Hints:
PGBDSf, alpha+beta, peptidoglycan synthesis, 298 residues, LD-transpeptidase, 7 helices, four-stranded mixed beta sheet, L,D-transpeptidase catalytic domain-like, L,D-transpeptidase family protein, five-stranded mixed beta sheet, 3 domains, transferase
Amino acid sequence: MRLRHDNCSGEGAVVDxxxxxxxxxxxxxxxAGACALESQSGQAGGDAQSVSAGQGATGASASxxxxxxxxxxxxxxxxxxxxKPTPTTTTKAPKPKTTTTPGCPQGENQRxxxxxxxxxxxxxxVTVDGxxxxxxxxxxxxxxxxxxxxxxxxxxxxxxxxxxxxxxxxDTSKCKTGSGTTFCVDLTHQxxxxxxxxxxxxxxxxxxxxxxxxxxxxxxxxxRNKALKEWSxxxxxxxxxxxxxxxxxxxxxxxxxxxxxxIGSHGCINLLPSDARAxxxxxxxxxxxxxxxxxxxx
Length: 298
């Protein structure tokens, strides 16, 4: 390196005069190549790309073109910045939100209602544990809708419990039937049902009979006449689906909320609209009617 440094600077050379011109020519050529390489290496600013001997020689001997700059380091294809491919990301579609339907509120008579509905067995599966569940909720709502209990929100309150227990406690074997169809009225449980050929074909369902002072009489009767709508002279009200069986007493659709227990009829058998229609369709003049039991408070 010292030799190259001396040659490049041109200091301290002693040679014969005959050989002076040839020696100078050789030294200039060798020194120029070495300095060109050092100069380029220094100007590259610590470039980590290694340069081979062949590349260095070619660069030193080549005359720079008109537009080339001697201070510009040789470029290498591999020195160009590598463009990394943009990773492809798969965006999963968001899952649809699940809408949770609020459950029924639990009432103070939950276990009583569950017990009665389990015995009736016609309104869906229930678990008798005193705790509201989705299945209990559905069964209680269905029961309330069937028997006109308002609101039909699935809450096991006093009215729902009262109706459910009355229906579950009704003993259809206590009705004395005859040949053909018999309408059976259970005053004790305030229920009514129809038996035909020894089989229950309607009900049991709810009813509301005579209030205090107008108790519905017990005994065996038969339907005397029928009318889709009968006018009551003493009470000035229409009686839909009328079927009279004892004096002015008969079956008809109620004109008030049937679950208001503080009131009652004047001896008639009040029915929900759907039940009044069903009994009217089944009954005929001469159909047997059997009334038994006792309504509390009458």
